[in-house]
Amino acid sequence: MSDPTPAPPLTAPDLWETVDRLHGWLESHSRHPARETLLLRMLKLSEEVGEVAQAVVGATGQNPRKGTTHTWDDVESELCDVVITALVALRTLTPAPERALDARLRAVAARSTSPSPPSPQSPGAAPVPAPAPAPAESVRPEVQEIQERPGT
Predict the structure, then answer these.
(1) For the chain, does the N or the C end have fewer beta carbons within 10 angstroms?
(2) Collapsing DSSP states into helix, strand and coil, what is residue 31?
(3) pLDDT beneath 70, residues of the chain
């Protein structure tokens, strides 16, 4: 039986300070060139998302051979790992991840919570401008190299 007394609130660490610390720790242990490190951090997201899927399958008992192997708390934990991994990957991509996330969050919120724009076939419909590219100084050299590769 669980204790009905709620746990005392925890002092949350500063999100971006923690992301910077994790990024620094990973950088200090990196054994690969910067470009490869960046790509591997992006691939790590797929691994973490796969762990979410595994936890959902386990929490719902969808594998008859294994039965129920996870809880919804496990799913929650795995989702948090996805978020953390994504934030560290974003920090690897840009030294200003706060700005990138803020801009993207605002754009998604605006398009998701505002009335539907007129359809392109509607008279007077204005084209939606593409987001401005990140300033060159905010992009790491290895990222710029990936972006400038011919055929990509």
Answers:
(1) N
(2) coil
(3) 1-12, 117-152
Residues with Cβ within 8 Å of residue 63, at least 6 apart in sequence? 57, 69
Cα separation, 89 vs 82, whole angstroms: 10
pTM: 0.70
Calpha distance 56→77 (Å, rounded): 11
Q: Which DSSP category does 122 fall into?
A: S
Residues 6+ apart with CB under 8 A from 117: 125, 128
Report CA-CA distances (Å) from 79 to 17, 51, 74, 91, 127: 20, 9, 9, 18, 36
Do the Cβ atoms of 144 and 94 come closer than 8 Å?
Answer: no
What is the pLDDT, as a whole number, of residue 115? 80
Q: How far apart are CA 90 and CA 41, in angstroms?
A: 9
The two three-digit tokens of residue 60, written as one number? 């719902």
Is residue 128 within 8 A of residue 117, CB to CB? The reply is yes
How many Å apart are CA 142 and CA 35, to the nearest integer? 5
